[in-house]
Every structure is written in C-alpha cells, then in structure tokens.
C-alpha cells in the first residue's frame, strides 16, 4: 500500500541521507498468544526496530487467547497486503494447516511457542525444553529429598507448554537431555512419578487469569500437604501468589515460575518465589520482525540450519533479580512511545 512521504523524510533526502526511508516501509504482523504483560517487552523491542530500519509492525494481542482470534487477524492482514507474519502459536496442531497457507503467501516465522510441523521459516525463542529442564533443577534444589508439586498453565496443546512440562519431568526422572523436542508428551494424568518427586496434577485454565487463580485455590484446599506450585505461563504465577496469599501460605509453600511479571520479580526479592525461568520477549519482538524484513528485502536473515534462532532462558533468583530488573527497565525505555502511538 502506498504511503505519503513525510516532511521529515524529505529533509533527510535533501540532506543526502536516509534515501531508503523514502520507500514504503516493509509491513509485517506480530501476533502474541494473549493479552499478557509479558508482551509489553516485545512491543518495546519492536518500537526500537521501527526506529532502526524502515519497517511498520502491526502488533496484535488476542484478547481471549484463542487461536480463532489469531487466525482472523492474520486473514485481515493478508487482505491488506501484509509483507510477513510472526506468531506465537496457541494451538499448533489445529493451526498448522492454516499457517501453511499463510507461508505460501508471505514469509512466516514463529516465536515463543512454535509450530514445528508447519512451513514456517524460523523459530525465534528459547528452547522451551531446556527451560523446563532448568525449572526441574530448581525443584531439585528446593526439594532435595523429594516432594509433591502441581503445574498450572493456560493450555497443554501449546508447544511451549508441552516442551516446558516435558523438560521438567525428564529432568526429575534423570533422563538424558534431548537436543530437540523429545516427541511424545507425558499424558496429563494425576500422580506422575518423577523419581523422588510426584507431579500430582497439571491444571489448565484456557488462558483465563481468573481461572488460573481458582485452580490454585482449589489445589491448595484439595492437597493441604502439597510442597510446591509451578506457574508455567507469564500470568500463572501472579495468580498463584494471589491464591497462596489469600490462603495465608506465603512462605509456607514453594513457588517456581516462568517469565518476568513485575509481581513475580518482587516475590523473588521477598522470598516467596524461589526462581523464575525468564525469557527475552524484547529480543523476540526485535529479532522476529528483523528477520521478516530481511526475508522480504532478499537479504540473508541469518537463520541457522536447524531454524532455531536461540534466545536462551535466564534463571532469575534473589542473587540476580535486581540486575535483571534493571535490564528490563532499560528495554522498556526504548519503546515508551509504542503503546501511545
């Protein structure tokens, strides 16, 4: 779609610099897996990229965290002539045929949660399996003599949830490390034995934060001797903290988290959460859209042969939480204008 050249661009052209910016920008879509605080950092990364190169990003956070919302948005963007699509896939099994149709029209990459069987060109993110192994190590540290734990997560058909959960189970069982996704998921049965540890249950909430809290409230009543709760998605642990606080059990039950919600980082400082397996959504936003830009322009996007553009997880504990918080704050400053534009 043609756009008018701005006065600022004309000034740059007359000055003999920035001539490429007189061209229409590459326009891509960036679709998250829900409306969570986590994606604020991705927005900041995208805002920085929009300052660095001639790109416009249509950012969408599905209000109900449903694959139908993702699909409708992508269809709208394709109708408008979008140049590329980056997506955190909610349900890879059911969305993959549609994604293949998208990939036949424009460059397609995944971030955060993959659709490995699709024709996407790259996956930008951490190895969720590796992050699951890291969380399993945290459980070992907290419960060296064994114990019981429950996982709370939005959905178990999302690739990131599948791999994180399997990494935890494999780590506690002492199984060899898998260099790639291990394949079959351990069924979501009750009382899964993992060596000295027992995964009592895996509770899902469909991406609903209020249901995540009610799940936590329920298991605290149903299993009064439970040793540990693990929140697997960004909003899961804040919901757990709220339920544990209401039950007057802060500091009495162990909590392990994923991602870097503000409340989680404060709970790590306060000693109520032991650790979180943090991602780098800022880089997800920046790198995913930069790769699409290069693909559209016919430049080398730097995609490895295995298609994984690795952005490793960081284990955040009391020892490094302040340093990690400063990094997040610096990232957000780069994109302060994004949400208001």
From TrEMBL:
Residues 36-299 form the Periplasmic binding protein domain. Residues 1-22 form the signal peptide. It is found in: Cell envelope. Pfam families: Peripla_BP_4 (PF13407). GO terms for cellular component: outer membrane-bounded periplasmic space. SUPFAM superfamilies: Periplasmic binding protein-like I. Gene3D superfamilies: 3.40.50.2300. The keyword Signal applies. Keywords: Signal. GO terms for molecular function: carbohydrate binding. Belongs to the bacterial solute-binding protein 2 family. PANTHER family: ABC TRANSPORTER PERIPLASMIC-BINDING PROTEIN YPHF (PTHR30036:SF7), D-XYLOSE-BINDING PERIPLASMIC PROTEIN (PTHR30036). This is Ribose ABC transporter periplasmic-binding protein.
């Amino acid at each position: 779609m043609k756009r008018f050249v701005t006065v600022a661009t004309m000034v740059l052209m007359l000055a003999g610099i920035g001539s490429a910016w007189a061209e229409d920008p590459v326009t891509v879509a960036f679709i998250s897996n829900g409306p969570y605080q986590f994606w604020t950092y991705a927005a900041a990364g995208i805002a920085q990229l929009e300052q660095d190169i001639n790109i416009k990003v249509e950012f969408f956070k599905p209000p109900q965290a449903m694959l139908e919302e993702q699909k409708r948005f992508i269809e709208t963007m394709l109708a408008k002539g979008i140049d590329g699509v980056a997506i955190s896939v909610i349900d890879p099994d059911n969305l993959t045929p549609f994604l293949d149709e998208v990939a036949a029209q424009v460059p397609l990459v995944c971030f955060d949660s993959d659709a490995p069987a699709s024709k996407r060109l790259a996956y930008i993110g951490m190895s969720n399996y590796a992050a699951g192994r890291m969380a399993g190590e945290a459980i070992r540290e907290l419960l060296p003599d064994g114990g019981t734990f429950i996982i709370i997560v939005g959905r178990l058909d999302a690739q990131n949830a599948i791999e994180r959960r399997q990494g935890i189970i494999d780590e506690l069982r002492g199984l060899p490390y898998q260099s790639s996704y291990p394949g079959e998921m351990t069924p979501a049965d009750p009382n899964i034995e993992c060596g000295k540890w027992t995964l009592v249950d895996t509770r899902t909430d469909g991406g609903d934060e209020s249901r995540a809290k009610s799940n936590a409230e329920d298991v605290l009543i149903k299993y009064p001797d439970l040793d540990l709760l693990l929140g697997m998605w960004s909003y899961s642990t804040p919901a757990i903290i709220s339920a544990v606080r209401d039950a007057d059990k802060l500091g009495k039950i162990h909590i392990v988290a994923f991602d870097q919600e503000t409340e989680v980082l404060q709970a790590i400082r306060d000693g109520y959460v032991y650790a979180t397996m943090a991602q780098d959504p800022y880089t997800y936003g920046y790198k995913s859209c930069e790769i699409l830009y290069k693909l559209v322009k016919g430049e080398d996007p730097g995609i490895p042969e295995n298609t994984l553009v690795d952005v490793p997880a960081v284990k955040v504990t009391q020892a490094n939480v302040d340093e990690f918080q400063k990094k997040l704050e610096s990232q957000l400053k780069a994109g302060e204008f994004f949400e208001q534009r």
